[in-house]
Write a structure and sequence with these properties.
Shape of chain A: globular
Distance between the termini of chain A: 37 Å
Radius of gyration of chain C: 19 Å
Number of strands of chain C: 2
Number of domains of chain C: 1
Largest sheet of chain C: 2 strands, antiparallel
Strand order of the largest sheet of chain A: 1-2
Strand order of the largest sheet of chain C: 1-2
Order of helices and strands of chain C: HHHHEEHHHHHHH
CATH topology of chain C: ABC transporter involved in vitamin B12 uptake, BtuC
Largest interface: A-C, 48 and 55 residues
Helix content of chain A: over 70%
Number of helices of chain A: 16
Number of strands of chain A: 2
Order of helices and strands of chain A: HHHHHHHHEHHHHEHHHH
CATH class of chain C: Mainly Alpha
CATH architecture of chain C: Orthogonal Bundle
Oligomer: heterotrimer
């Protein structure tokens, strides 16, 4: 996964790979796609469904990584942007039920891109808690629109979305869940590939310069406001794409799917995964999907009452967040990197010490 | 008596103070002189507990200060007038002065100490209800020193009181301070870049250069040593 | 006209609850540069504590006081145990930490007290009063809500402006380093500040619950509207927070009364954005740039 992080230099790769980031990322992502393709065959359709979920959250979290990690803007309202993507897709399908997925996804990308540019322009003047507050208000306000305009958006009931069926060429008993996982994984890999290249390009540098020191960025000729709007649009587009896939994934688009909790989960997942690295966004999404699964299993094994069992996953998620901030302030990715460094140091020391004292028993 | 012994402070890899030792006697002003970056401010910040030294000790009448928090050092009657005044500009003049002796229990004593500060620096009395942000540079320095004195300190650490002050005003302030030093048996550590004025009021002087003590001597002898003045004090 | 009066009274009453939350947020922001996103969840939790002890036979007012005391304790413990270690870290750490606490409390409450929506008793009648045959537009409970928040605000004002402990707290908030070299125990002042803020939040929770009912996320919107009010007021100014929150309360009441209750949060968002477009640091905000 190291190719996802910026500024990594894997010495085992050839010199051509080292020279070209694009090529290096390309090779890495093709390899990853192959591994994932095999993986989806090895697991049951139910697990394929979970994998699709990880892919969807990864897309949204990766976009938020660009905004919050690379550019330093905070958003507590990305769930609302996902909602725009989901409703765009659902309304399009309501209007023309047979529309191909690529069209609805593009529609979602365009509509959230527009919304993101409006929010980005408004938000570029705001800093810290002011931006956080504005996006928080957005997260609460936006889900009210489908309730008010129930004719278009289906009100509280929401809009149904037919989940995509696998093409006949794949065989009659090819599970639809696996097909959905493929689509979502493909979208996630393309998104990550594009974002990884973006972050290692001059645009990525510009985003980070603005984050680190606005005054210095201005002196260096960077248009701070435009850079911030750009970051917002990029992350909004990702959220929109994720939202559109989310609509297919849950088969229904309703306001209750896009609560404040979703927005908060996205931001917190990005940070505990490891802020600033796309790999961290993947970790965060894995936590978002699998922590409830694991803790849910645990709770049902303990035969707790439903009030308790239903809330165990969220309670544990809350504890994980608090503990992570107290113990691993640099996130899971940061913790893994420093663990790997320590291991490498231990191995290196063994390598030099062991031959001198061949079979020294531990004291 | 304040005794600094073998004090070493480093920020990351940069050594700011290197094995600094000297003592500050009671009832006298000890000047610490040196160029910008010599470690003067680090020295006072270490004594008042804001900076942790790598090693060494600071003894106040035999009690170790290193390792204590700034607030408990303040309660051992060490008053610090930080560089650039250090007044709380959001509070009123009177509130700033009251902060000086706030940790002491006796309300009546607190009030007396504040009134003494007004007596010492009359310009402050006229503006007691006004916000501290409305004071001039000189008045801010008076406020900061008055606040420190209101704590009835045994040790007074003054970090560059001359900064941005007119010479006459500085002389006035130092004169008022000078009479208090003997009367209250204050140990004063006066950090100055303006060596000439500091040497005129100090009994003893310590010259720092790049974090090390280069000279400790009586102030008047130092002022008379032309070679030394040229080398370290720039006049 | 009649409708307008009803909505105005509603707006002021709700606005006072938002004002309590807004003031709590501003107190903590000024002292520690942290927005306590868990403020609403903490209030929800202490209200559940009141509900629990009242259900088990404790007199209402004793339960009320227990909830306030629980708020005080919860605020102090939160600052000491959770917030203190992240104070020197980047601002985002504290954001995630308080969000984590919010998520945890909203999950813990149904585990302890059940997930179903509960009705929380109002200490006074919620039926509008009449004076000599004419219908008034407010109830005893409305008077209590406005009165109790005003009362606590005045007490806090006196504490901060007229006592030495308040002077210490302000010095610690405005300039912690100077406060420390003056012998003020800044850590204790911060703990006290968080405790008082949580007390104010707990009051808001107790006043909101009879109207909103009691369930784990019942304070989410109150937090958002209080936060909106605090931002409109500029985050630095207690007076601004109260003014901003009352404005939000009124705006929400008019929008939901005249245009439909679904649109109320949207109205609050639009007002927030309108204010921020003109003044990016709120109405009473300082022009000084603060890095967050």
């Amino acid at each position: 996964m190291s190719a996802l992080a910026d500024d990594t230099d894997d010495e085992s790769l050839g010199s051509a790979l080292r020279r070209s980031t694009l090529l290096r990322h390309g090779v890495f992502f093709v390899a990853l796609a192959a591994v994932l393709l095999v993986a989806t065959y090895l697991v049951s359709p139910f697990h394929d469904y979970e994998i699709a979920g990880v892919a969807i959250y990864t897309i949204a979290a990766a976009g938020l990584t660009v905004l919050t990690g690379a550019n330093g803007q905070i958003s507590l309202g990305h769930g609302a942007l996902m909602m725009i993507g989901a409703y765009t897709t659902s309304v399009l399908l309501q209007w023309r039920p047979g529309l191909p997925m690529i069209v609805t996804l593009l529609g979602a990308v365009v509509s959230t891109g527009l919304a993101g540019s409006i929010i980005g322009v408004a938000g570029a003047r705001l800093r810290g808690p002011y931006l956080a507050g504005a996006t928080l208000a957005l997260a609460v306000a936006l889900p009210q629109i489908p309730l008010h305009f129930a004719g278009v958006f289906g009100g509280n009931q929401g809009l149904n979305v037919a989940s995509p069926t696998a093409p006949a060429a794949l065989g009659a008993d090819f599970p639809n869940e696996r097909w959905l996982a493929w689509l979502c994984l493909a979208a996630a890999l393309v998104t990550l590939f594009l974002l990884a290249n973006l972050l290692s390009s001059s645009v990525g540098r510009r985003l980070r310069t603005v984050r680190d020191n606005e005054v210095a960025a201005r002196l260096a000729g960077v248009d701070v406001a435009r850079t911030q709007v750009l970051a917002f649009v990029i992350s909004a587009v990702c959220a929109g794409l994720a939202g559109a896939l989310f609509a297919y994934w849950v088969s229904i688009t309703s306001p209750t799917g896009f609560t404040l909790t979703l927005s908060l989960q996205l931001l917190t997942a990005v940070v505990i995964g490891g802020l600033g690295s796309l790999t961290g966004a993947v970790w965060g999404s894995i936590i978002l999907i699998y922590l409830p699964v694991l803790t849910g299993d645990l709770a049902s094994n303990l035969s707790l009452s439903s009030d308790v069992a239903n809330n165990v996953p969220l309670a544990i998620y809350g504890v994980v967040l608090v503990v992570a901030m107290l113990v691993f302030p640099r996130g899971l990715q940061g913790a893994l990197v420093s663990l790997a460094r320590q291991l490498a140091r231990v191995i290196r020391m063994r390598g030099t010490v062991l031959p001198a004292v061949p079979s020294a028993p531990e004291q | 008596m304040l005794e600094v012994a073998e004090l070493t402070v480093a920020y990351g890899g940069v050594v700011a103070l290197d094995d600094v030792s000297f003592s500050v006697p009671e009832g006298a002003i000890t000047a610490v002189l040196g160029a910008n970056g010599a470690g003067k401010t680090t020295l006072v910040r270490t004594i008042s507990g804001l900076v942790r030294p790598r090693h060494g000790s600071v003894l106040l009448d035999g009690a170790e200060l290193v390792g204590r928090s700034p607030e408990s050092i303040a309660r051992l009657r060490v008053a610090h007038v930080p560089e650039g005044h250090g007044i709380v500009s959001e509070l009123s003049v009177d509130e700033n002065l009251r902060l000086g002796g706030l940790w002491r229990r006796d309300r009546a004593e607190q009030r007396v100490a504040v009134d003494e500060a007004y007596a010492l620096f009359p310009p402050l009395a006229a503006r007691r209800r006004g916000p501290a942000s409305g004071l001039s540079g000189g008045e801010r320095q008076m406020l900061s020193i008055g606040r420190a004195l209101a704590a009835r300190p045994a040790v007074l650490l003054l970090d560059e009181p001359s900064l941005g002050l007119a010479t006459r005003l500085l002389a006035q302030i130092m004169e008022r301070l000078g009479s208090l030093v003997a009367e209250r048996k204050l140990s004063v550590l006066l950090i100055e870049q303006n060596a000439r004025s500091a040497l005129s009021v100090a009994g003893q002087a310590v010259v720092l250069s790049l974090g090390r003590v280069v000279v400790i001597d009586e102030a008047h002898r130092l002022a008379g040593d032309e070679a030394l003045r040229h080398a370290y004090l720039g006049f | 006209m009649r409708a307008f009066l009803i909505y105005t009274v509603d707006g002021v009453t709700n606005g006072m609850v938002y004002a309590a939350v807004a003031l709590a947020l501003v107190m903590i922001w000024r002292a520690t540069r942290i927005i306590n996103y868990a403020q609403g969840a903490m209030a929800m939790f202490t209200t559940y504590i009141a509900f629990f002890v009242i259900e088990h036979g404790t007199p209402f007012w004793l339960g009320f006081v227990i909830a306030l005391a629980a708020g005080l304790a919860l605020g102090a413990v939160t600052e000491r145990v959770l917030v203190r270690p992240v104070e020197s870290r980047p601002a985002l750490s504290a954001v995630i930490l308080t969000l984590g606490l919010l998520i945890f409390l909203e999950a813990l409450a149904p585990m302890l007290f059940g997930a179903q929506v509960q009705s929380f008793p109002a200490p006074f009648s919620r039926i509008d009063l009449t004076a000599g045959g004419t219908q008034l537009y407010f109830s005893r409970f409305d008077i209590f809500t406005v009165g109790s928040v005003l009362c606590v605000m005045v007490l806090l004002f006196v504490l901060f402006q007229r006592t030495t402990i308040g002077l210490r707290m302000r010095a610690a908030a405005f300039n912690p380093e100077i406060a420390r070299i003056l012998g003020i125990r800044v850590g204790r002042m911060l703990t006290l500040g968080w405790a008082l803020a949580a007390l104010l939040g707990a009051l808001a929770g107790l006043l909101a619950a009879p109207v909103l009912f009691l369930y784990p996320t019942n304070m989410d919107e109150v937090l958002v509207f209080g936060f909106t009010g605090a931002i409109i007021g500029g985050l630095e100014s207690p007076v601004g927070a109260v003014v901003g929150a009352l404005g939000v309360g009124l705006a929400l009441s008019y929008v939901s009364g005249f245009l439909g209750s679904d649109l109320a949060p949207l109205g609050s968002l639009l007002i927030l954005m309108a204010v921020l477009m003109i003044r990016p640091r709120g109405l009473f905000g300082m022009t000084r740039q603060r890095q967050v």
